[in-house]
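Quick question: what would this complex look like in 3D?
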Amino acid sequence: EVQLLESGGGLVQPGGSLRLSCAASEFTFSSYVMNWVRQAPGKGLEWVSGISDNGRSTYYAESVKGRFSISRDNSKNTLFLQMSSLRAEDTAIYYCAKEDGIAAPRFQYWGQGTLVTVAS
Amino acid sequence: EIVLTQSPGTLSLSPGERATLSCRASQRVTSDYIAWYQQKPGQAPRLLIYGASSRATGIPDRFSGSGSGTDFTLTITRLEPEDFAVYYCQQYVGSPRFTFGPGTKVDIK
């Protein structure tokens, strides 16, 4: 069974930085596009960032462009999200998600999420 | 940017009833690029439907998706107690890669 396990969340002050990790197992990690999706408390889902299977192409939502950086280590089956210049509105549960289906892209597998709280 | 709108915001129904959830795109969307998710409190989203009408692995056949162009529908033919949740539609747009609708909450009447 595919497993995705996020870590690295916590409380950080506005303007601070945080690095999230997502450890993947039970699938060939290096063959799949991976994504981060977040959900602010009581709100809906927001796609944040994605990265190609080989890590050469990265994609960002406008709301995080220039502040967040996605990367991956295929040798360690791990996805990362480096977050800087954090704002209160970045407070959310951050999920990593495995992207399936080139013809019909979708997120079949999700992690359990890690909570990031930006507050002073 | 293509915006997804979901209606109604909340749907109050009884177990056994039929639920019809709407997802409308601000511009025409390729059907292959529409997916639906279910989310229960405290849980990660669960993929229900992809390609507008294909059920994901393990999803009961009471869930079905349809639509094309700008209008897409998720139908739950007979609501089971475990189906009361929030439902999101999603589209793949290339850049930014994905967007989600605001969600429809299906609650118990």
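Answer marked as accepted. The longest strand of chain A covers residues 92-100.
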